[in-house]
Amino acid sequence: MLVLILAYLGGVLTILSPCILPVLPFVFARSDKPFMRNGLPMLLGMAITFAGVATLAALGGGWAVHANQYGRIVALVVLAFLGLTLLSTHLAEWITRPFVALGNRLSQRSAGDGDSIWSAAGLGVATGLLWAPCAGPILGLLLTGAALNGASVQTTLLLLTYAGGAATSLGLALLIGGKVFALMKRSLGAGEWVRRALGVLVLCGVAAIALGLDTGLLTRVSLASTGGIEQRLINAVRPPPAPQPVLKAGAPLPMEGVMPSLAGATQWLNSPPLTSESLRGKVVLVDFWTYSCINCIRSLPYVRGWADKYRDHGLVVIGVHAPEFAFEKDPANVAKAVRDLGVNYPVALDNDYAIWKGFNNQYWPAHYFIDAQGRIRNHHFGEGDYQESEDVIRQLLTAAGQKNLPGGYVSDNHHGVEAAASNDPTRSPETYVGYARAQNFLGGKVAHDDAWDYHAPNALGADQWSLDGRWSVHAENAQLAQAGGSIVYRFRGRDLHLVLGPASNGKPIRFRVTIDGKPPGADHGMDTDVDGNGTITAQRLYQLVRQANGSGERLFQITFLDPGVQAYAFTFG
């Protein structure tokens, strides 16, 4: 229910978004007509179309984006005709004649022809096609969740709720606008002039949208933005991290529930499908992870070590791969990552988040420790406390009757990207590049889903970042349209990682990294050389910087020598 309320409020706030401004004249064009026959059908058509386009964009991939672009062109043509009919009654009669003959009244008819519910609904469909790209952080989260979780009743309900919120604010504007225009007509006798003024505004709106100003310039120069308000709403309802259990030496482990079903896995790697029932008599460690998560990668050496160390003593480790980004749903990508990372224990692909929901999990990585009777006895979220976790494993194995367990702890001497993070508490936070969760971006507003020329500022503050060059920023990532584009970030930390992917055609992309304007030298990461050169060949996390001395503040820049790169998220160590 809380998520539905959040979606509705996000929709209500959408009308304040600058990219909505060119759409409003189409709404006010019918503000002086009866609401039930004109305003309400238009709002319903807009809401249903908006939700439909958003669903396709989230679930259908790139083809849906192109389809929506064609839909926008059709909508612009229809609405341009609408504007012309408002300017001239003679033209209105001529234009509407074939529509009347066909029974498809999609364009507004003149006042003398009467009102049509279907023409109002048609105008709503066109408005919905133009409204869909105006996404704030809340809609971005809904679209990202839909892309990850797939088609469902919940996805459709959330998007319809968001669209309903947008229709509510539009309806209020329509009702208020109708009264204002009626008052102007009565007091000034200027009905014809008001109608023509609306026609001019509609045509101006068509021109603004056709030129891309709705998602480009207006969103960048406007002082009004709902992003901050929506982000505060998201933060207000986001649950705080669950407390870690405090274990006392010799005290029995608490009972935290029964192990949920594993039946929701979409595929298994390294093993035939496992069930909760078949695992009875075994101590089980369930590790929720995803292969581009740096926190998961740094905890993997311990999970692998426990699996190897205690495999012959009754421990079964199950990696539940729950994707964060859409490309992590591809079984081939996961299988390659499993091989590259040396994961040899069973891995369940949880693309539909069924197992995730069964455990009521919210974190990567998350470890759940289950006894031989199938009961959850302990959990741990995030990195760290590895010796305490191994003590839990030994305690559960001992309770299951295992004897002569190997002593000591799994080694913490790990190298490369798997090395533990630095102890710098001021290191930069995880930073997403897609607009759904982007923070600390400097360089103007972001144009959603449209190619735009960005210019990085001359100076960045700590933890600020920017784009440079022609980019298309989507909810989950940013894609470079032309070679030579860059991302700059003033970061603090020993390590800098960036989740990257090649172009949709899979062609490798060359890049060059600089630190404080110079080649990284000894501070290069595993995926760059001393001159800062590297190549993107797969969708994964790339380690670009590992400072040889300390974790001080530095200015990072990565320049891509080929177009098409997809950038997802920064993480630091």
TrEMBL record:
<dbReference type="InterPro" id="IPR013740">
    <property type="entry name" value="Redoxin"/>
</dbReference>
<dbReference type="InterPro" id="IPR036249">
    <property type="entry name" value="Thioredoxin-like_sf"/>
</dbReference>
<dbReference type="Pfam" id="PF17991">
    <property type="entry name" value="Thioredoxin_10"/>
</dbReference>
<feature type="transmembrane region" description="Helical">
    <location>
        <begin position="159"/>
        <end position="181"/>
    </location>
</feature>
<dbReference type="InterPro" id="IPR013766">
    <property type="entry name" value="Thioredoxin_domain"/>
</dbReference>
<keyword id="KW-0472">Membrane</keyword>
<dbReference type="GO" id="GO:0016491">
    <property type="term" value="F:oxidoreductase activity"/>
</dbReference>
<feature type="transmembrane region" description="Helical">
    <location>
        <begin position="73"/>
        <end position="96"/>
    </location>
</feature>
<dbReference type="InterPro" id="IPR041017">
    <property type="entry name" value="Thioredoxin_10"/>
</dbReference>
<feature type="domain" description="Thioredoxin">
    <location>
        <begin position="247"/>
        <end position="398"/>
    </location>
</feature>
<keyword id="KW-0812">Transmembrane</keyword>
<feature type="transmembrane region" description="Helical">
    <location>
        <begin position="40"/>
        <end position="61"/>
    </location>
</feature>
<feature type="transmembrane region" description="Helical">
    <location>
        <begin position="6"/>
        <end position="28"/>
    </location>
</feature>
<dbReference type="Pfam" id="PF08534">
    <property type="entry name" value="Redoxin"/>
</dbReference>
<keyword id="KW-1133">Transmembrane helix</keyword>
<dbReference type="InterPro" id="IPR050553">
    <property type="entry name" value="Thioredoxin_ResA/DsbE_sf"/>
</dbReference>
<feature type="transmembrane region" description="Helical">
    <location>
        <begin position="117"/>
        <end position="139"/>
    </location>
</feature>
<protein>
    <submittedName>
        <fullName>Cytochrome c biogenesis protein DipZ</fullName>
    </submittedName>
</protein>
